[in-house]
């Protein structure tokens, strides 16, 4: 059954049927007035958002713009003005060197805006806003030319990660149980050499794999994150480790395992993302994702 499913899925992708049908389905949802955010989230959990609509869909899912399409232009004009005010403020207050990389300027703007509502510290996770914001911003800058969009999307994704901190132990538990189920040999090897806790899961989860997977692989993962389903990050971690299993099984200690997962062959990154999506859709049952519930 699994092989047949994979064959059908692969065939539809190759002939372009699946992508065309998904795009039509999304366009139908986007014609509703107002947009139904529940249906939109369900679509994003089940399918990959077409690249031409991803920016817009993410902004609605993340409450950057409202579900009323007629208001999108007006609200984005307000967002642009807010962006300009923050940019002016960090310059005038000398909060950042304006010749610094753009990601650092955006971070300074975010820190200024969030000064009074910073979250409590999470010492058990070593949460650091820069470790989340900067790699996500770098990825978004590669994806989109509009820096206003980049700032607001990065701000929203960083807030998701910040609010996700209490669920990190659950994400790590989900990773271990899923890895044991999907590849018991690999799981046992990591246990035997005391390397399971060496895996940089906190770094992976707190950056949503930005800086770990490339810009062509990440958006399909972030479709799920933006839809309120952080458990996808555990699935990505499982598939990343399994994809590198050949080298990991040769590792004799934690340091060698860490080296393996820090040197991901470029051709493997798309494989990791695609396999993670497949496992997510057919094995992880996103509709029952407890982490996605408020």
TrEMBL record:
Q: Which GO terms describe its molecular function?
A: GTPase activator activity
Keyword RNA-binding listed? The answer is: no
InterPro entries, alphabetically?
A: Rab-GAP-TBC_dom, Rab-GAP_TBC_sf, TBC1D7, TBC1D7_dom2
Lineage, top-rank taxon, reads Eukaryota
Q: What is its main location?
A: cytoplasm
Q: Where in the cell is it found?
A: Cytoplasm, Cytosol; Cytoplasmic vesicle; Lysosome membrane
Give yes or no: UniProt keyword tRNA-binding. no
User: What are the Rab-GAP TBC domain coordinates in residue numbering?
Assistant: 48-229
GO CC terms, sorted? cytoplasmic vesicle; cytosol; lysosomal membrane
Q: Name one GO biological process term.
A: negative regulation of TOR signaling
Keywords assigned: Cytoplasm, Cytoplasmic vesicle, GTPase activation, Lysosome, Membrane
Q: What does this protein do?
A: Non-catalytic component of the TSC-TBC complex, a multiprotein complex that acts as a negative regulator of the canonical mTORC1 complex, an evolutionarily conserved central nutrient sensor that stimulates anabolic reactions and macromolecule biosynthesis to promote cellular biomass generation and growth. The TSC-TBC complex acts as a GTPase-activating protein (GAP) for the small GTPase RHEB, a direct activator of the protein kinase activity of mTORC1.
Name of protein: TBC1 domain family member 7
Q: Which organism is it from?
A: Papilio xuthus (Asian swallowtail butterfly)
């Amino acid at each position: 059954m699994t092989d047949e499913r994979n064959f059908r899925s692969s065939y539809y992708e190759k002939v372009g049927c699946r992508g065309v049908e998904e795009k039509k389905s999304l366009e139908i949802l986007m014609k509703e007035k107002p947009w139904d955010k529940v249906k939109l989230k369900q679509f994003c959990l089940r399918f990959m958002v077409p690249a031409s609509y991803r920016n817009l869909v993410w902004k609605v899912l993340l409450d950057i713009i409202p579900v009323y399409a007629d208001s999108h232009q007006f609200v984005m004009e307000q967002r642009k003005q807010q962006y300009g005010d923050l940019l002016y403020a960090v310059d005038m207050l000398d909060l950042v060197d304006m010749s610094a990389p753009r990601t650092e300027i955006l971070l300074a703007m975010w820190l200024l805006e969030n000064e009074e509502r910073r979250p409590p510290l999470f010492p058990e996770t070593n949460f650091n806003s820069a470790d989340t914001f900067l790699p996500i911003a770098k990825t978004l800058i590669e994806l989109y030319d509009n820096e206003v969009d980049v700032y607001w999307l990065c701000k929203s994704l960083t807030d998701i990660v910040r609010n996700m901190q209490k669920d990190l132990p659950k994400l790590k538990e989900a990773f271990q149980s899923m890895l044991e189920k999907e590849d018991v040999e690999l799981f046992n090897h990591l246990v035997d050499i005391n390397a399971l806790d060496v895996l940089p899961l906190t770094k992976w989860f707190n950056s949503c794999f930005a800086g770990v997977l490339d810009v062509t692989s990440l958006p399909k993962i972030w479709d799920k994150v933006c839809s309120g389903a952080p458990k996808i990050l555990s699935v990505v971690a499982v598939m990343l480790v399994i994809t590198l299993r050949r080298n990991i099984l040769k590792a004799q200690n934690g340091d060698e395992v860490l080296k393996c997962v820090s040197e991901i062959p470029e051709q493997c990154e798309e494989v990791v993302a695609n396999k993670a999506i497949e496992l997510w859709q057919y094995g992880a049952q996103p509709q029952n994702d407890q982490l996605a519930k408020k």
